[in-house]
């Protein structure tokens, strides 16, 4: 089953049709601005309606919540990339690469070319899993603790913003690169898409 999800070598007659390099200046700017806008679109409306001062929170409580937020962000980034890796490993069994740069954390399978379905599953796995986790956490904390509700909402917003590259690539695959013969090489920060040349 795994063998049908990828090719070890690019088949003859395939050519590159699109490339996304998250480390390039152009894509870094696009993804950074998109992330910021998406994160704020989630965070601001959710936090405006909450009364954070009514519960008598001390500055110590706020500092602890800030520390929890920072640790949670680091754990989330690692878990996000591991989720990509779990999906890729389950679907291909291939060697994974992980890394981080100033603008992007990544997981890739650089030694193979995955099909469109495998690419979509691996791209959307973290978005799906952590959207459910953070929405459920925020819904619960809304009734339990407004400060930690704020932490959960910030995590949800950063999650949506952090998925901008995954979502952009998935939308590209769904609406533009719809050909079932498509193959993608994912080195982590760079995805290259290939299609058979039309005769």
UniProtKB/TrEMBL annotation:
Highest taxon of the lineage: Bacteria
InterPro entries: DUF3267 (IPR021683)
This protein's record includes keyword Transmembrane: yes
Organism: Candidatus Coproplasma avicola
Alphabetically ordered keywords of this record: Membrane, Transmembrane, Transmembrane helix
Protein name (record): DUF3267 domain-containing protein
Spans traversing the lipid bilayer: 29-50, 62-79, 120-143, 149-175
Keyword Transmembrane helix: yes
